[in-house]
Each structure stands twice: as C-alpha cells, then as structure tokens.
Amino acid sequence: MHVPEEIRADAAALIDHHALGRWKPNDADRRVAVAVFRFLETGLPLTGEQIRSALAHPASADPVDERLVRLLHGTATLLDDTPVADAPAGRDAVDHVCLLLDALALSRPAEPSGQ
Question: Where are the domains of the chain?
C-alpha cells in the first residue's frame, strides 16, 4: 500500500477507531508513534528511512498493531517517491498519518485489567 488515497483512508480510519475507543493503542504502538513524532519535531521533512528506523526498534512484550505497521510501511514507501509524496494527495496522506501519530504519542496507557 503506497497509493496516497489508501494511506489517507487507512490513517483516517485508525484515527476514528482510536477516537471512538474501538482501538486501544498498546505501549509498542505509542513507542513507535513517539519515535516517528520525534523526527517530526525537528521541523525537517519526514523520510521513509526515519519511519523504517522507528519500526526497527526492539519489540516489547506487546507487538505493534499490524494495521499501524502496514500504514507506516506504506507511508515510508510513499515518502521514498518524492514526486508522489510532494503532490497534494501525497501531502494530505502524510498529514493524516502525522495526525494519527500525534494522537498516539499523546495517548495515555491503557488501564491494567482488574482495576
């Protein structure tokens, strides 16, 4: 998946699922989001290599959500194709992914069960 419209739609769906409480990000999801978000904070354009670097961190007890992994790999591939990434649809797709990452990076850890 690296068609900008697919990336935008998938990012929007994950944002909605997160906002509606249908998807509760785990610690691994948040760690990946924070790692990519740190690259965004530099003010420099995000690159595919930065996303792949964030995904390559050692796994925790919980795996990163497969939908998030697929979305981020697709976004990395999109960013590798500069003309497509710089087009309006590409920028919109990356903006949606960044909104998702922002929401995940700022989300609170889930309550431990039994409390």
Answer: 4-106
pLDDT at 115 over 50: no
81 with 75: CB under 8 angstroms?
A: no
Provide the token pair at 30: 């948040």
State the Cα angle at 30 between 99 and 38, rounded to 5°: 65
Question: Are 29 and 111 a contacting pair, CB within 8 Å?
Answer: no
Residue identified by tokens 């998807």 is: 23
The SS3 assignment for 25 reads coil
Rounded Cα distance between 5 and 90, Å, is 8
Closest C-alpha among 44, 48, 21, 47 to residue 107: 21
If we measure between CA atoms, which residue out of 6, 90, 17 comes closest to residue 48?
90
pTM above 0.85, yes or no: yes
Both tokens of 53, joined, read 């670097």
Convert 10-23 to b/e letters by CB count within 10 Å (16 or more is b).
bbebbbeebeeeeb
